[in-house]
Design brief:
Blueprint (H helix, E strand, L loop, with lengths): L26 H5 L2 H13 L2 E2 H13 L9 E3 L2 E3 L1 H12 L3 E3 L4 E4 L1 H10 L5 H34 L1
Antiparallel strand pairs: 1-5, 2-3, 4-5
Length: 158
């Protein structure tokens, strides 16, 4: 008869996958980012704007001298910025902006409160410069925003 071995306590490593949730972006990260605060200010002043129109808006503002330091590439005459899209995504992630069903973005209630509490981070000179540039560029953006609406209506009819 074989000898029985003394049973030892199981010290095996678990093979379970352990998921640890960690926020990639937090409100404090956004608060430390002056470019994101300016972007929130622009979205707030525009009210409701499509992502496409926002890209054109910031591209035209860059041409007129107000540079947000986003790197734009133009493909077929349409400006595009991966940095800007990532910034928009991070603002959506923390709940400061949201996408409406018509593919437009707008500040949420949290976004409005967040911006109102941090408007003092933007100087009056910066606000005036942004407002002036918005006034100059906004007429060029309205048709682009309307184009997004028309395309969406066409798609919904199909």
């Amino acid at each position: 008869m074989p000898k029985e071995q003394a049973q030892q306590p199981a010290t095996e490593k678990s093979k379970e996958v352990k998921i640890i949730a960690k926020q990639v972006f937090t409100l404090s990260d956004i608060e430390k980012n002056p470019r994101a605060l300016k972007l929130l200010y622009i979205i707030n002043n525009m009210g409701v704007i499509s992502e496409k129109a926002l890209q054109y808006l910031l591209y035209y503002m860059k041409e007129s001298g107000v540079d947000f330091k986003y790197a734009f590439t133009t493909i077929g005459g349409a400006p595009s910025s991966r940095e800007l899209l990532n910034e928009i995504l991070s603002l959506k992630y923390v709940g400061l902006i949201e996408s409406l069903p018509n593919r437009k973005i707008v500040l949420t209630g949290l976004g409005k409160e967040f911006l109102a509490g941090r408007l003092n981070a933007l100087s009056e000179e910066e606000k005036n410069l942004l407002n002036k540039a918005l006034g100059e560029v906004k007429p060029r953006i309205v048709p682009i925003d309307a184009e997004v609406d028309i395309k969406l209506k066409r798609q919904s009819r199909r």
